[in-house]
Fold each of these.
Amino acid sequence: MTSKRGRLTIPSESGYLEETKRLIELWGADGIRDSDGTKLDDEIKQLAEKVYTTYFVARNHNDFINQHRDEIQQMFLLSERVMATSDTCQIDIMTGFLSEQIEPNHDDPPNTYWEVVDRTTGELLDSASWTYDETKQQVNVTGVTPYHEYTVSFLAYVIWDPTQMYNHITNDWGDVPHDIPFDVRKKHSKQYMADFLKDWLTQNDQTDIVRFTTFFYHFTLFFNDARKEKFVDWFGYGMTVSVQALSDFEKVYGYRLRAEDFVDEGYYNSTFRVPSKRYLDYMTFIQKFVSQEARTLVDLVHDSGKEAMMFLGDNWIGTEPYGEYFSTIGLDAVVGSVGNGTTLRMISEIPSVRYTEGRFLPYFFPDVFREGNDPTVEAQENWLTARRAIMRKPVDRIGYGGYLSLANQFPDFVEYIRKVADEFREIYATIAHIEPYTSVTVGIVNAWGKLRSWQTHMVAHALWYQQTYSYLGVLEALSGQKVKVVFLSFDDVREGRLAEVDVLINAGDAGTSFSGGTHWLDAELIAKINQWVIEGGGLIGIGEPSAVSCNGRYFQLASLLGVDKELGFSLSTDKYFVQPADRHFLTENMTRYDFGEGQKNIYAIDGDTTILHYENGTVNLAVKEIGAGRSVYISGLPYCAENADLLLRSIHFAAHKEAMLKQWYSDDVNVEVHYYPKAGKSAVINNSSEERTATVFDGAGVPCRLTLAGGEIVWRESYDI
């Protein structure tokens, strides 16, 4: 029997003692936490084994920062484009920005750090050709070319923390003061940061775990003048910039960064951009600084006898859990928001910490916990989606956040969370620290490699754009499947790391960091992959893999994939190969096809390509054998049970391991089988909320018919199936 208590953290709030006590007993919670905007009473703190207290390093300290406003955090912003109609033009730099959040930097000389660019030609204008009017917040440019467009890249102070702003708007906090973030790179801020924490640790003696939310720099997020998000990149380093940071960088790397290195033509170096060497250098520079300064705070926490936990969100930039310097911070734990299986694995796989914790959804906020809505629906979807990944690599704890008083108003939700907590404890007690069976090793190659493990194509916390859900489905499928996943950069491939994997996946839109963009102009890279596949490797391309127009090809690996994309240049060349095959290993279990956004004008390049799905003049699914190797092309793969099975079959086909598919496998795409050799157990898991009857196969491929209730897990001794 597993314990009915432990491994669960719940929120509470002041004046809610008795109900908190009841829910602690019902759910078996051993940890209590506060949330942004709540405080814990001392009596409540005595109810749990572990008390978490949220700690904001660089915000919620307005008394300090208002005395040192030159140390407010900054970023580079790009003005709206203005078309000149004469040889002069005026650019109002704050047009479209929210003055409650953004304030132009008037402390450092604009002509030294700001840039005016002719966006029609890309030419940087000499700083002598423009002046800035502080009163009007306007740049006046002379000597311009009529009917060209111009922009100003300018430094601005961030005078309202983006997360507090979001919570302020969402929860209608009214006249609550706006938190102003300060920059710990600055002299006074750095000293204040350490001194305040020392005092805080003394005053919060009942706190067991200091939950840093997070450290210093927020991901890039700024709003428009209607209080709507204007730009958000959960991976963006835009809010780490300051004149001192630029100066310190130049001393280390020997060259000076420009505004354009951050604004990046208006794309703000989003995670979808192929990163330049200059930007990668800057990211490394920030990661090293953040890790060093964070270690100072963590040491203070440890010296006080408390644990140090980092929330993977808000001000997480520079910590990079899969980066080179993360281990030097010395954290005890990381907690993050779990939106799906991909984010679960992103958290549970983090190295160099003693334990990980997942904050599950829904957040106990009024946008979900309101009259007429049933939060149990979201909770069930969240749990069943994430549970697939837990079966492969569990987090060590689960938890929830928000206002407990709101959640307690929904009895069905309260009862469902009790079941979730008990089921998690049972899973963890059975498989924690046990390697599950894997049949194939899969490598995912993109411009980020290991640094973005389990993070491709996401916006934040499992959110995605319409244009990328066809690719995020790849990670979501893999998060709960019997394969080992390795994240590779293009440099890793160049250095010979293809030998570590059976199958290589390249997925994404052309030009993005995930497809690879200009990396595919490297003939040596292409030759290495060609050789590896022809000598027996497996390749899966999804969307626009290896796409860059060059030398008569769009997909630079078209010879391996068997398909290319028509750009209009080869319309005069007939394309005869359109007939799909009647049957194939990949499609044996398919009842419906969903290629998401898909692609248009994909065609088979020769008769050696086996087309498996052809519709509206485009190939959506195809395979090819070349030399001793195999490839699979899929036009898009949004997550659903059928597509997860299609990907699993594609992986086994590409790896020449079709026979291994029906080992620890189910013929129902909604049911999966996980095997834990050292535990001598297997788990048959129903990922749907409906009853399912499936034929499941053991390690020898012997079938057995099982019926599972909605969401049920059946544990069996390994020899029983």
Amino acid sequence: MTGPGRPPTLVQDGRRLLRHGVEHRILSGSVHYFRVHPDLWADRLRRVRAMGLNTVDTYVPWNWHEAERGRPVFDGDRDLERFLRLVGDLGMDAVVRPGPYICAEWSNGGLPAWLTGTPGVRLRTSDPVYLDAVASWFDEVVPRVAALQANRGGPVVAVQVENEYGSYGDDHAYVAWVHDALVARGIDELLFTADGPTHLMLDGGTIPGVLTTATFGSRPEQALKMLRERRDEPFVCAEFWNGWFDHWGERHHVRDPHDAARDVERLLDLGGSVSLYMAHGGTNFGLTAGANHDGADLQPTVTSYDSDAPVAEDGTPTAKFRALRDVFVRHPSPHLPADALDERWTQPAPRLAPRWLTPATTRPALPVLRTLGSARTAPGPLTFEELGQDAGLVLYRAHPVLPPGESTVSVIGLHDRATVYVDGELVGTLERRTAEQGVRVRGDGREVVLELLVENLGRVNYGPRLGEHKGILGDVLVDRRIVHTWESRSLPLDLLAVGDLRGDGPDGDPGTADGDGSGTAGGGASGVGLPSAPDDRLGSGDVAARGSGAAADTVATFVLDVDEPADTFVALPGWTKGFVWVNDVLLGRYWRRGPQRTLYVPAPLLRAGENTLTVLEQHAPGAHVELRDAPDLGEREEYVEVL
């Protein structure tokens, strides 16, 4: 018998979880299909399974599937159903976390910019405007998940209601509405909530009669005590933080493998079930990385989502993988296929030999950006939301008169970072904390072309600043005088054709050739002789010294010939800040600020023969880029998040 009405696969029995009537322990790990190239989904799933896991969980980011309102996409790299079927094909269970909010250090916590840009909308509440949008989204996504529930022949054994709501708000009617919306659309497997093990969070996020799970990174005894004081239910850790993510300008967070393994074993010895967050982190490709806010400034998340996970960003099993597998072997799952722990699933993937590349062409970036995207004129600068734009850059252009002598150009409400040009010359950069202090400029009483290239560094994904708008939210001033009449040019880098940036079109300017585009070191077989990425970290300005002769705001292209595609890591020694494309795919940001010093390029992004790397440098370029055979995520810092 299949279909609605069949009993759920997982059920609560007092403090026990039963799977088809037999006591069961969930040994799970998070793998986000949206952070992994789809050609590598099966590979990554086999690798986490080889750690001894019997379950995989994933969020579902709404804005990944419905970037444009009313046009949801569920194919290609957004084929959620294919990913879930692969989980089932490998003999594993799946847990799905459809939000609608997911956090996940993902831009906007997974909420679409078209929704959070709606005037007056109250996010994650019973606001009818918000609920109407969620209902339409659930109409699309939930039936797809419901059809793949285990009691209908699929792998899905549990679905989460919202996500850590108790650390955000206390609209209990809203959380109940999300639960009922899932049930109404066919979810009849186990439903659960997940919150930190504090009274504040559990008070805000739990639902009567729905399994309460906890999220934490240490002290499982304390978490169990608090949960049992409130409910006599199975002990489930929906997220065990065995690693952590990184922000630009901080160190690379790591956690000692044996420390993480000890806490997991303590949790299991208490009779608990666990999901590792993350089992495999993946990559924030393109412009998908989110940001946090510490109350003083934005904390943008780096391109890598390696998260010091047991299966590294490139799929390599780490020392943490081995330590955790030793724990799971002592608490084995009876549901895994016989070959699940085979060592063949732990072998590293092939990598390209190291080499360096010099630019095939270079061209100034600002003149190119002035011709791309679409522009609107208004009395003041328009925000990203007013332009209908999610991520990338906006180029603002006005024609003020600069008085004789020195004056200050400042911005009220800058979100998030601006490079400032006067008559095409870069004069400085501004960030949130420096925007109202401004940059000093010199005038002679004549009209100038004032341009601000403003970057969205990542939408806040957690806390009360969720849904913050981007761009220039207030005014631009010359001293105390407001500058009016602005052209706002939308430059969504993730949507623009990179060929237009390079000047590949019939009318494009290909720039100047700087070299033959390729080179090797040590015969191409090792990294001997390659200069390492600089360890210096520029301040908030990130502006090259004037008069140094270094070009600014450059588009550079590189040619990479490959006999057979394999993984590689791009380093940009001497470069300052910008974006990298591999062929037609926006890989992500780089920033000398660190900690991340290399960008992971999975083999499926390359093709046999000629490949093109494109770099948009916002400040001062280096002389070459390097392809390395190992990642460099920066200076390490031991980190354990404790609630």
Amino acid sequence: MKSFLLTIQLCLWTCASSILYAQLPPVFESIYDGKIQKDELTRIFISPQRIVWKYAGDGSLVTNENELLKIGNSQTELGKKNMCEMVSNQNETASILLDYGKEIHGGIQLVLGGSTRREPSLVRIRFGESVGECNSQTRNYEWGVGYSTDDHAKRDIIMEIPRDGLIELGNTGFRFVRIDLLQKNTTIHIKEARAILRYRDIPYLGSFKSNDERLNKIWLTGAYTVHLNMQEYLWDGIKRDRLIWLGDMHPEVSTIARVFGDNDVVPKTLDLACQQYPLPQWMNGMSAYSLWYLIIQHDWYKYNGNIDFLRKHQNYILGLIDLIDSKVDAEGRENLAAERFLDWPSTPNKEGVEAGYRALIVWAMQDAVKLCEILKQPIAAKKAEACVARMNKYVKDHHQLKQAASLMAIAGLIDPEKACNEVVSVGGAKDFSTFYGYYMLQAQAKAGQYQQAMDIIRQYWGGMLDMGATTFWEDFNLDWTKNATRIDEVPVPGKKDIHGDFGAYCYPGFRHSLCHGWASGPTAWMSEHILGVKILEAGCKVIKVEPHLGDLQWVEGTFPTPYGLIEIRHSKRANGTIESTVKAPKGIKVIK
């Protein structure tokens, strides 16, 4: 993964000057009167890493396919040498399935040679986050296990391709591409079938490295998962859920701060969200997501100290506090909305969701108090504080729901050690979820259960890696891995397809997103608790370095701040104590 990212970065740096300083022809300046917008994202090309599978009939339908693995130049040439040949006869269709090695966002560029037709030839292109999805059928009229959909991004395309030319298609999340030649008695030649990776050209400022390669890979996979979702705005998923979801953003924002630093995609996304959902609407039509908005605003300000951005959102913040406060009565009963939502796996436990939802209100209003103090709005601060006091009169039982117990521990409604011993840590990774797993880990940190949290990260998020993941998924259950094929393998009879045979709610089967930013929590968690960087004063002016190595022998890394990078290394001595080296830029006070 790291070498893959470094290769991408080198490619981007090589062409950065020509992209960044490209000038438009003068004719555009007057004709379009400022209506031209430059693409802020970058494209690079990736050749397939391997041929997963082909259907060649007696062996003659697909030949020279290894030519597709070579580096290309996007230029067709006359003749049919050094090209993959695909032939369909009267009864059989030539097919090939390509693996690009990592989950990416973008499309595919086909560079084509000659064909047996004067007219364009008809092909079917299927993008897939797994081999199984690439081989699946598309059914858009209803969701179901065993089928994929074209929701949010077209991933199953029938189209004509030219001969001796080039064509580009696709804008989705994928790792695999299947090409089928549909017309009978036709031969085509493909010189190149390169993936187009479209992503934000930014350096990985934060880093994490330890003597445990599994943890290192998990940290980097979480970072890359969020990176792919940093498109024009901050999305939840690159195949499905290519939308701004405020609740889902919180783990992503936590990861962005620790990996990419103060990136414009966060304030830009928050600005658009407020435009899309003006008060008294709830963010995304979900009251819980408006609560997350307050938490995100607090955490983002604490990281970068940008008071101007906070003031820009002052009226929305104060109006939201008024709205929430108006829906909590004197006894602490609330009627924010009829629908309560934490995450999908928690939904069957209605009583637990209710307890967790109330804890989320408390957490959000606690952060609202701090925001009002920063903005020098004492009346609003007292209102939010009083709302918290009313909510605390009526604390519900967590009903053994890990999501609820975690939020209650974070909000101070239950002792963290009690929450973890009774619920969160029971059964280890059992009943963890990709979204709320971050808050379960945070509850364990509050309880001092760092080793238990590290073990769960290895088991749960590492379990996705064991099944071929290169980004983290919308949902995951360790039980799915029993007798299941990896996402990079052709499913076989008698075994489950880890992608197509599981999933529920809005993500059954192949509709399940395998690159979801809300699953990146361990990246932020490891930087905060293993590397040990805690922000004590807004803008990282004062930070505390308090590592928790557990069974690790050493850890080192960097933490981006508005003042520059903090460089850290911790090594465990023979007696179990930790030797730490911290180099911080001028303007930052470090407390050890």
Amino acid sequence: MSTSSHDNTINDIPAHERVNGDKKEIHPDEEAIPYLNDESPNAAIEQDMGVTKIEALYLVFGNGWKLWALWGSIALISCAYALSQNTTYNYEPFATSSYGEHTILGTISVITSIMAGVAKPFIAKLADLASRPWALTFSVLFYTIGYIIVAASRSVNDVAGGQVIYTLGNTGIDFVVTILLADITSLQWRGLVTGLYSLPFIPFAFVAGEIASGISAYSANGWRWGYGMFTIMIPILIAPCIGILFWAGHRAKKVGALSLASSTYARERALTGSAPVARTMTGTCLYYARRIDAVGLLLMGFAFGCILTPFTLSSTAIGGYKNPSLIALLVVGGILFIAFCMWEWKMASHPIMPARVFNRSLICAVGINFMYYFCYYISDTYWSSWLYVVKDYSDKDYTYILNILTVGLCFFSVVGGVIQRYTHRYKYLQLVGLGFRVIGCGINYAIVNGHFTDAAIVTSKVFQSLGGGITVISSQVAVQGSVPHADMALAMAILSLWTSVGGAIGSAISASVWNRRVPEALTARIGHLYNETEIAEIFGSINVAKLTEPRAEVIAAYNEAVKPLFLAALLTSFIAVIFGCFTSNFYLGENHNDIEQKKAIRVRKEEEVRPEILAAKAKELEEKLAAEARAGQL
């Protein structure tokens, strides 16, 4: 279960040759559905229906057009998601500025980071309890509703509310597809396949500039169509994947492939037949509420929201941190966080962070990604706003500059995946990546200390993307490989949760510093030319700030304001390197993970997945288990 005392000697033995630390030879042609193998040290882990369904679903595809249709539909999602992320992320400063409330950007960033963190354990539980396609359908629905609200907004509150709802859907789409890819690939290919999924971000980064320019996305209302177009595109482009997954799930159940995928399901069928468990509506709601740990998710979300939001509001609240409302939020947040810890420790029947999944690989990966996102959001929550004010780029060039990081992250994640495939290791590669991130943060700090050139701006983002692409892909592989398949989605959710919390804390600190230092710097530089109301107007909109004269003084004010943020990002980036030194370095081989002996699900020949063959195998297995039950052997 939390078998993660990976000492260095055992780590050098491929997992598929090991049982409880001892070498065991496994025939290379051994059946690739060893889910009935009770010799597994994790055989006692209960496998949720969603995991069983995805393992059974892949049995019915075979090596034909159906398999290619599945991969093609995932590629469509990749393209749609990449285009969405490469464009809409850049519109948010202009959406808030159009209402004269650019300062609320930090608050939105904090809340959406918390939402993204809380959403992933929920989505993971939904994907495990129901199925991957149901979780994907749920995510698309919330994505669409959220962006409809933003596109039709009449106030900055509508923008914020829509972004929160959209975040649940957007996070879910990306997370479910990541789970799907991890479900069906071995450790040696995991990093590369995950990197390839993000590859469309690269060409669409260049298309994004043309789109932004074509719809005048940075004008007063052009951003509305920038959001609205994806409420049509995303559902249409993701629908094929959802349809294929539902079809395959129905077919797998019809031919009995669920029994072949899970010994737990087969035993239940053998003992009870196909009769479902009878529950009332209330009983059903309570059952699933316990399984997804609804109380824990709510306590955690509200706790972090109450604790971090005051940092983003302190500069605009009357009395700052002495404001009674902010004090109340901090106190309530502290109480809720304590309640969350007690609930998870003592009361939750299915906690979102069960002790069995915590191991050295997961703990170190959490530390690395927490600090990675903490550093990133400290410096980059307002980086695009700062750049827009201080540099005179066209809309197209501005979008290209903003997408350097995205392009680099996607490209270097593929490079990292290739290296992992042929070295079968990830630790030292990740340490190299963390080192490049430190260099990138150093260049970023140098920019506001006299090295204010286009070359420095581009170079800083290239180095940060080089380090980030390798770092993130390595953390994902480490976590996915350190737990059995039944716990994989939950372990991934825990990593993403604390990654998002790191980003939320970074955003909160960034918003607090930005909202205090920018008005102070503007007042010090141009306060003799503009009154307090005019200064507030300049601060409230980056469009106004960019046109304000004397321009040199405005640029100097913004550079002075962001300097401590860039320095903090540089200093804290070293902490991730420390975590990287202590992570494990297990072998990335043909297995699905480093814990179980089962290999990743392999593609079968068409004749092996004929319905009558699968149905016969399932019936034979269930009859065997039923006979054993009658004989008292179960």
